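Page 42, continued from yesterday. The earlier attempt failed because a stray header line got pasted into the input along with the sequence. Redoing it now with the clean sequence only.
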Amino acid sequence: MTTCKMLLTVALAIGSGLFPSAMPLGKETAAENDIRNNALLQKSTLPFEAPDFNKIQPSEYLPAIQYAIAQNRQEIQSITDDKRTPNFQNTILAYEQSGVLIDRVTSIFYSLVGAHKTPEIAETQKKVTPLLTDLQNEISFNKKLFQRIKYVYDHEYATLKGEDKKLLEETYKGFVRSGALLSDEKMARMKEINSRISELQQQWGNMLPDATNDAAVWVDSKDDLAGLSEADIAQCKKDAESRGSKAPYCIVIINTTQQPILANLSNRELRRKVYEASVHRADGSRSFNTFPLVVEIARLRAEKAQLMGYDNYASYSLEKTMAKNPDNVYAFLKQLIQSYAPKAEAETKAIEQYARRTMGPDFQLQPYDRFYFSAKMKEEMLSLSDDEVKPYFNIDSVVQNGVFHAAHRVYGLSFKERKDIPTYHPDMKVFEVMDKDGRPLALFYTDYFRRPTKRGGAWMSSFAKQCGLRHQKPVIYNVCNYAKAPEGQPTLVTWDEVTTLFHEFGHALHGMLSHCRYNTLSGTAVARDFVEMPSQFNESFATVPDIFDHYARHTVIGQPMPAGLKEKMLQSINFHSAYALGENLTATCLDLAWHMLRPEEVPDAAHAAEFEQKALKEIGLLNAQIPPRYSTSYFNHVWGGGYAAGYYSYLWTEVLAVNVADCFEKRGVLSPSVGQSFRDKVLSRGNTRDQMQMFTDFTGMTSPDASALLKARGLE
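This time it went through. Structure tokens are written below.
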């Protein structure tokens, strides 16, 4: 008997609980003993039942997940074997209460897959992914289970109320959208598609970080780094040492197309190398090529949509969002494109003309020049440089005196660092979050610094979601990818990184302040084009004077940013802002273009780059000066994450966020009563009611005002 089968057999034999402590040790098999002692399967004794990373061993993840899968199978079988007439209690609630263990174990495991994927974790992921996909297929296409769910939906939906009604609706519709009403033949094909997409996304998740790491640009001489600050040069040296010292210095590529370091790098040839390394990291020009994965995923998604009766994947995906369909999304985007295009053209022309003053009248601005000359232009026009501002943005002050302080002023929360709670990496910190009445509310972990084992980008997730039914308080974490200063020096961040800290904490607040009965509905479990609203709204606090002055203090002398410098810095936020909007619009339209295709229309890998160019040209966004924020070959949100046909949501929810911020401004931007209203009507509600209704409940607006977006970005 294989280890896998043995563990499944053991799990099935002992039922839904962990091994009883009274079991005679001498009669246990080796497998039973391993399960008994597996830290992931033991109830944590830490506050909030936080994962005990001091006890959890990497080798324990696979058997723990295997055990939890077997337990979940038995829980589902218990529901389907029930001879009683299906009702909300014995079917919907029983289904909601199943899977607690697998939720807990996989939440911990996948936190490491994203943020600390060691070779052992990567190897475990290869084994775990097909097991979890098989389980999901088994549940999604379990006819007996769905028949019971459908019976309850047909007979009780009209009489249920509140969260019970919403849970029934989400459960039933979730099964339908997964294919529960398909014929046997189509259902079998859907299972195959789900399994293959899962395999491809795992391959993507392994390849893209490797490609990004491999794209790092090695530099032999400090002279080539002219224009960078001493701190940035020291970081390049540190990055080289951590990557094998192939040269004295190394410029690490981050997840986006444009690289912020280009704003200060004087060496044009090196700028070109860095930019080219970024855009070609995974298109086959170098050592890695994700296009074969991309086109197969796109083709399978298109086929999946057709099986479900939709013309394309975008139509299938958008049905469950606020936007509802591709036509509404395109109408929204074209309105923005029409207003943006002349601003972008004027911005590019102004930068090129400025560059020609020093580079000569024949100078042709290239995309790798844009950040550099824009920064020089800003410095001259506003008498402002990044080096002047950066000393005021110490990451510790931004977090504790900015992000946390805003949450205290608006929501009454307080934060206490807990050094006694273990983490999966020494760079992390843990904070206990107390509510306004002093009662414990949540645990919050921070993991801000980049390392080779972490994928690019920034995100929020949880080790445990808030759930009244499970008596579970939220255990939330934020992850970023900032360069950590050398030992003994403060880590200083850019303004963009400041806003990212506020952004990701907005997601964290959405999880922490959740007050829902059911796990399925709690926290950030909302429509994709609503989930970014609380996070984008939270960015607005970064510029509120009382908050800004509280955290923007010189890292050495502790003084607040002088009024003159502060005014110039805040003016600079929207300097040349057409670029930021343009790179988002192009990425958004690229995402939609791929997911508007029928299976037979998806190009082969050799023509994927050509398709990208064609798609952008057709919508009027093909502009070498303003490339997509993420190009097809490294668009992780779409091919590796959950944003397929949904990247538009960042712009869509920015409109909602600006509208909400305007309401705060009018009613009292740091008013606890306004904060409590937003908490009661939006942040605490999860997916317990229609999201547009939540927006209306707080703002009083029956529909969002899209014109506010361009004004907020300084483009009107």
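Notes: The two ends are 70 Å apart (CA to CA).
Reminder to self: strip header lines before submitting.
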